[in-house]
């Protein structure tokens, strides 16, 4: 079974009376444990597709199934709960909470799960060790480099052990070295921990790390 | 970490803003509870009066006296157990005219037995003579009864002035001119603080002889009833007795008499209440604006939390709790501060009112208002956070 099934998806944004089509009848399968890079020019619909797969946006028509769950059947609270269990998000600008330590940032998704504080802390600590930040637990985001912040964000994405990781330009704000380290980490998560990864990127070097590179142009796959 | 600690962390992220908002709520609730405290005090002033005693005064006004001849006819009324009387003296301390305290001339032989259940005599001078007191009077007042210029003072007044037993205190008369020396022969303590402990009580006879030339005019009569249930009947009968006389009377229970005093303040209590609510409303707007600003600054973070799986309801409660927690803490502090400060001040308008009090009911109302302020001020940002469209919000962050 494919981890992600996108079927004939259309997405149209409305600005006042104007309709802006972003995805136009897109279909796509991403296998379990796959590592896919989505490339394409700005406005081609890469991030929109990522958001739809992650359940933070809804399709205009068509359907998306992730891990067998039809996202169009999930709404509100159920969809939020589903996201917390099945999807890990990694953003270009890390989006960490500045007033929380690295450990507390990673604990955030676990606040939604019935778990003792001790267990929560322990799981967050393990996730940070996994990304090589076991010695930065008490550091605030401002005390970390960009690469370290992104690693905290990756730890936050994997702490609840989701099957799918969605990364939106995860190296877009990093220098070459830090970007390489992040890509190494993503490769490891995919290889060792069998995470299905969908990564939006403009960087061909980053895309090379993926198993497959898909090109989007004007809302349709060009390859 | 827990959801509660997340709320605390968010409150602490802009410490100056949080502190200033909290301070504004503290001040608002302090003012609200202080103003309500004035109303509580006026309320206590009403309740201090007994329903088992009637007060008969001149129907025109309290400042017009009643003839001494009334006392026998009043005493003869069915249902009246004892009649006592008194006059307002209204003197000033010549050393410190600004430090006002009440002085009353009372018919001690009847006054003290009537009020025996309201006060305790905690200090008393030793009598020089045989120590005789009228029937029903506490023997501790023997020295007071021996001395025409003797007086009994409230404990608070006694301590505040640093007086001692046997000391002569001088009062300058304003209604009854001249210099009036009084010798402190006893000190009383009120069983109910609302009764007040800042009055000086002295022999009515002394006032009559020295200040009224023996005319015997009385400021008011106090009628102790055999049965409190007869209050209505007795007061109507008394007033009917003097209906067509030169000095018609108005008789009411002591509690109603006290309430009459309070009613002289007119709409002041209403205005005080109104000002209290106006202050709270003004601060509510300030707090709402601050909470809105704080939440707007975190739109991106709210979108991230939603992406991580926080549902609308959880986010709504998180934002709402921030406002409610801030105002609850500040409201609690402001309300308790008002109780501590006002009651600690011991202000009682020179004995005309019971000591200032802020009831626990007022403190509870203050805290409830604070929580309400928090809920209302946090409501708009909480709804906004709950309705946040993740994609739109994340796009703004990027």
Q: What is the topology?
A:
The complex is a heterodimer of chains A (223) and B (398).
Chain A: E1 2-15, E2 18-31, E3 35-39, H1 46-53, E4 61-66, E5 69-70, H2 76-86, E6 87-90, H3 102-107, H4 117-130, H5 146-158, E7 164-168, H6 176-191, E8 196-200, H7 204-208, E9 212-217, E10 220-221
Parallel strand pairs in A: 3-8, 3-9, 6-7, 7-8
Antiparallel strand pairs in A: 1-2, 1-4, 4-5, 9-10
Helix pairs in contact in A: 4-5, 5-6
Chain B: H1 3-11, H2 15-47, E1 53-58, H3 70-75, E2 80-88, E3 102-106, H4 108-114, E4 119-124, H5 142-146, E5 150-154, H6 155-161, E6 168-173, E7 178-190, E8 199-203, H7 204-211, E9 220-225, H8 231-241, E10 249-253, H9 254-263, H10 268-297, H11 299-308, H12 312-345, H13 360-387, H14 390-397
Parallel strand pairs in B: 3-8, 5-7
Antiparallel strand pairs in B: 1-9, 1-10, 2-3, 2-9, 4-7, 5-8, 6-7
Outline the structure in words.
The complex is a heterodimer of chains A (223) and B (398). Chain A has 223 residues and is α/β, with parallel strands linked by helices. Chain A is built from seven helices and ten strands. In chain A, the strands form two sheets. A six-stranded mixed β-sheet of chain A has the order 6-7-8-3-9-10, sandwiched between helices. In chain A, a hairpin with a 2-residue loop joins strand 4 and strand 5. The model of chain A has no long low-confidence stretch (mean pLDDT 92). With 398 residues, chain B is of the alpha+beta class. Chain B has 14 helices and ten strands. The two termini of chain B are 28 Å apart. Classes of the chains: A alpha/beta (223), B alpha+beta (398). The interface between A and B is medium-sized, with 30 and 26 residues.
């Amino acid at each position: 079974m494919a981890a992600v099934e996108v079927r004939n998806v259309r997405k149209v944004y409305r600005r006042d009376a104007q309709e802006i089509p972003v995805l136009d009848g897109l279909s796509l399968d991403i296998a379990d444990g796959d590592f896919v890079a989505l490339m394409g020019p700005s406005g081609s619909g890469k991030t929109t597709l990522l958001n739809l797969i992650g359940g933070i946006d809804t399709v205009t028509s068509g359907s998306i199934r992730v891990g067998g769950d039809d996202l169009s059947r999930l709404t509100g609270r159920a969809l939020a709960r589903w996201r917390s269990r099945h999807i890990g998000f990694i953003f270009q600008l890390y989006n960490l909470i500045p007033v929380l330590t690295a450990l507390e940032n990673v604990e955030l998704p676990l606040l939604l799960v019935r778990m003792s504080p001790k267990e929560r802390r322990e799981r967050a600590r393990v996730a940070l060790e996994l990304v090589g930040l076991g010695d930065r637990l008490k550091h605030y985001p401002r005390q970390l480099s960009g690469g370290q912040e992104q690693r905290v964000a990756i730890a936050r994405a994997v702490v609840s052990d989701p099957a799918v990781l969605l990364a939106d330009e995860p190296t877009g704000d990093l220098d070459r070295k830090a970007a390489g380290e992040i890509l190494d980490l993503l490769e490891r998560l995919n290889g060792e921990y069998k995470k299905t990864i969908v990564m939006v990127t403009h960087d061909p070097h980053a895309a090379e790390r993926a198993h497959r590179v898909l090109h989007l142009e004007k809302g349709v796959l060009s390859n | 970490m827990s959801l509660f600690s997340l709320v605390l962390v968010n409150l602490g992220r802009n410490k100056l803003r949080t502190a200033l908002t909290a301070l504004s709520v503290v001040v608002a609730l302090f003012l609200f509870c202080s103003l309500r405290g004035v109303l509580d005090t006026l309320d206590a002033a009403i309740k201090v009066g007994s329903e088992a005693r009637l007060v008969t005064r001149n129907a025109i006004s309290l400042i017009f006296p009643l003839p001494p001849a009334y006392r026998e006819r009043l005493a003869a009324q069915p249902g009246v157990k004892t009649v006592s009387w008194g006059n307002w003296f209204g003197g000033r301390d010549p050393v410190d005219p600004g430090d006002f305290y009440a002085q009353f001339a009372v018919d001690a032989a009847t006054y003290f037995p009537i009020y025996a259940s309201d006060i305790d005599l905690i200090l008393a001078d030793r009598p020089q003579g045989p120590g005789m007191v009228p029937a029903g009077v506490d023997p501790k007042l023997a020295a007071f009864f021996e001395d025409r210029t003797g007086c009994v003072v409230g404990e608070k007044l006694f301590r505040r002035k640093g007086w001692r037993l046997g000391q002569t205190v001088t009062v300058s008369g304003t209604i009854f001119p001249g210099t009036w020396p009084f010798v402190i022969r006893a000190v009383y303590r009120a069983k109910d603080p609302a009764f007040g402990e800042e009055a000086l009580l002295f022999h009515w006879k002394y006032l009559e002889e020295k200040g009224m030339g023996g005319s015997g005019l009385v400021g008011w009569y106090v009628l102790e009833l055999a049965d409190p249930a007869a209050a209505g009947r007795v007061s109507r009968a008394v007033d009917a007795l003097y209906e067509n006389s030169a000095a018609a009377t108005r008789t009411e229970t002591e509690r109603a008499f006290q309430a009459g005093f309070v009613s002289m303040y007119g709409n002041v209590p209403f205005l005080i209440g109104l000002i209290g609510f106006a202050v709270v409303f003004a601060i509510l707007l300030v707090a709402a604006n601050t909470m809105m600003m704080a939440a707007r600054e975190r739109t991106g973070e709210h979108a991230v939390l939603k992406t991580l799986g926080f549902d609308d309801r959880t986010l709504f409660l998180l934002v709402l709790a921030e406002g409610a927690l801030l105002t609850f803490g500040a409201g609690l502090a402001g309300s308790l501060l008002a109780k501590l400060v006002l009651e600690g001040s011991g202000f009682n308008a020179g004995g005309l009112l019971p000591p200032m009090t802020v009831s626990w009911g007022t403190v509870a109302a203050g805290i409830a208002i604070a929580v309400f302020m928090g809920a209302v001020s946090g409501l708009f940002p909480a709804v906004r956070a709950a309705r946040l469209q993740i994609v739109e919000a994340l796009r703004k962050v990027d």
